[in-house]
């Protein structure tokens, strides 16, 4: 894994644009190589990441997709197709909802973009409701479009309205976008360590929001205290893996940024 600066070019990123998935921090380079391979340009400083995987398709096997992204310290969210985000309904229309992603632009959520939704049976979201959604489209000159269904299965797959009923308590905590992205990685153990102290449900949006539902307000406040400490640890210039040896590669260092030792988590939880 390498570190890139704005303007650095990533040559031979993928055989074709159809096999390229753009993540945060990269854009296509207008010039192509002689063999037609895709070239990308970084517009953000950070660690360059690459994931190669087979795309799911109803037709069966498909050519591998090459996903490229730049992972760096980030607090301002820029929508990218495929991101899972937490938004709040700010306006209701006949065909769609207006949802703020707490970014530069609001997003559009069609009323039919829910599992089982039809023109006669459509969801009824109130202004102020929170939704966990997937960014479907994020063009440069238009509002982003989000959806609460999986593109392949047509099921919710955990997406939809985020709500809580008494006696449960639900809260939303803001964190750095970089921390939110790290929390979604399987290597990150922060939420697993908190779950050892009390049960909770959580939804992590890469736009820098974490929704938490717990059985008591004290546990919700404790989760906020843990996330605030993790946010502070994110700025540590020498990240570490708690309870284990320090990672020896940049990729592992980035993956566990903002993690906390088990003893610190236990202390923060006990303060409740």
UniProtKB/TrEMBL annotation:
Q: Which residues form the K Homology domain?
A: 172-217
**UniProt main location, coarse:** nucleus
Q: Which GO terms describe its molecular function?
A: RNA binding
Q: Which GO terms describe its cellular component?
A: cytoplasmic exosome (RNase complex); nuclear exosome (RNase complex); nucleolus
Pfam families in the cross-refs: KH_6, RRP40_S1
* Source organism, top-level taxon: Eukaryota
Sorted alphabetically, the Gene Ontology BP terms of this entry are:
CUT catabolic process; exonucleolytic trimming to generate mature 3'-end of 5.8S rRNA from tricistronic rRNA transcript (SSU-rRNA, 5.8S rRNA, LSU-rRNA); nuclear polyadenylation-dependent rRNA catabolic process; poly(A)-dependent snoRNA 3'-end processing; TRAMP-dependent tRNA surveillance pathway; U4 snRNA 3'-end processing
Which Gene3D superfamilies does the record cross-reference, listed alphabetically?
K Homology domain, type 1, Nucleic acid-binding proteins
Q: Does the keyword Cytoplasm apply?
A: no
Q: Which UniProt keywords apply?
A: Exosome, RNA-binding, rRNA processing
Record flagged with keyword Transferase:
no
Location comes to: Nucleus, Nucleolus
Protein's name according to its UniProt entry = Ribosomal RNA-processing protein 40
């Amino acid at each position: 894994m390498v570190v890139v600066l704005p303007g650095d070019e990533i040559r031979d990123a993928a055989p074709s644009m159809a096999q390229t998935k753009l993540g945060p921090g990269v854009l296509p380079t207008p010039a192509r190589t002689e063999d037609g391979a895709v070239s990308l340009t970084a517009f953000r400083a950070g660690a360059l990441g690459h994931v190669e995987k087979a795309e799911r398709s109803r037709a069966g096997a498909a050519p591998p997709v090459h996903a490229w992204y730049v992972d760096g310290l980030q607090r301002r969210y820029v929508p990218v197709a495929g991101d899972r985000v937490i938004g709040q309904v700010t306006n209701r229309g006949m065909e769609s909802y207006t949802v703020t992603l707490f970014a530069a632009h609001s997003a559009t959520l069609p009323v039919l973009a829910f599992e089982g939704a039809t023109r006669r049976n459509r969801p009824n979201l109130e202004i102020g409701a929170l939704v966990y959604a997937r960014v479907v489209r994020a063009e440069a000159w238009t509002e982003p479009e989000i959806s609460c269904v999986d593109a392949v299965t047509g099921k919710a797959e955990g997406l939809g309205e985020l709500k809580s009923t008494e006696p449960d308590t639900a809260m939303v905590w803001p964190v750095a976008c970089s921390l939110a992205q790290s929390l979604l990685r399987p290597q990150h153990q922060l939420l697993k360590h908190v779950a050892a102290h009390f049960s909770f449900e959580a939804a992590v949006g890469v736009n820098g929001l974490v929704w938490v539902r717990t059985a008591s307000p004290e546990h919700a406040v404790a989760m906020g205290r843990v996330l605030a400490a993790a946010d502070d640890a994110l700025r540590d210039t020498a990240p570490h893996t708690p309870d284990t040896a320090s990672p020896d590669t940049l990729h592992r260092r980035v993956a566990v940024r903002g993690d906390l030792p088990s003893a610190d988590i236990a202390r923060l939880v006990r303060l409740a």
